[in-house]
Amino acid sequence: xxxxxxxxxxxxxxxxxxxxxxxxxxxxxxxxxxxxxxxxxxxxxxxxxxxxxxxxxxxxxxxxxxxxxxxxxxxxxxxxxxxxxxxxxxxxxxxxxxxxxxxxxxxxxxxxxxxxxxxxxxxxxxxxxxxxxxxxxxxxxxxxxxxxxxxxxxxxxxxxxxxxxxxxxxxxxxxxxxxxxxxxxxxxxxxxxxxxxxxxxxxxxxxxxxxxxxxxxxxxxxxxxxxxxxxxxxxxxxxxxxxxxxxxxxxxxxxxxxxxxxxxxxxxxxxxxxxxxxxxxxxxxxxxxxxxxxxxxxxxxxxxxxxxxxxxxxxxxxxxxxxxxxxxxxxx
Length: 332
Known about the structure:
Elements: H1 2-11, H2 26-41, H3 43-51, H4 56-74, E1 81-82, H5 84-100, H6 113-119, E2 124-133, H7 138-146, H8 149-155, E3 162-172, E4 175-187, H9 195-200, H10 213-216, H11 221-229, H12 238-255, H13 257-286, H14 294-313, H15 316-320, E5 328-331
Parallel strand pairs: 1-3
Antiparallel strand pairs: 2-4, 2-5, 3-4
């Protein structure tokens, strides 16, 4: 009962609050507005902090994959399945661009996206490539890709069945950047051999190991990912605990921070509207006191609602633009 009484004092007009809910009093609104502004502006340093961590690339890769499949499911298309060969080809392309300092579907030697597909042994029927560089936020780069016709066609192409995404960090034109490579594909169907061919063809002994390091001379994306996340199963040392906290913080910022912030804003907006109408209705039709200062209350609340609507409009990708960076995309 005490909790109900407290909620009534905060949100509904009654004798205990002199017919003006605490939620609509100037002091309360001012403090609450300052808290929301702080939370909104906190997005910028949090994003910059997460950008500098070693976990940002791996988390961003899976967020981008989720966004791609969400766009497809919305339109009745099947979600894309991760393919290890496409992930390898995307990793090779990203690594090559950072090492040679170019941003294009063709390398300085004329190597195209199709060559990377062939290099890793992906025999494709349909294939496509999206490139992005210099982003700070997964939502920002995904929105940019969806707003571009060629990139959008790749993401929503009904002919594609599989995808491989790589996000790598490196130097490009003197700046430290992340590069994104999305490789889309559908493999060619394997034609069954006839009985005659099967009899004539001798059985070949497959090599015991055929891995990406044999091609590029270093670790595969899966091995790199395993090393980055191995601390999750490591001992409970102080450094291990700090790494876990850092990883979970970056994961929350990249995946969930904007969602929870908007949830707070939407909730506040609804409470403000309901509380405002309840105050006016009760004062005029129930209590008949006519003591609420509407000249102050209505303009103040409308101003507060406009601030909240502006916050909702200023979503994370728009806010990220305040941090100096140059996002480039390229796709075919």
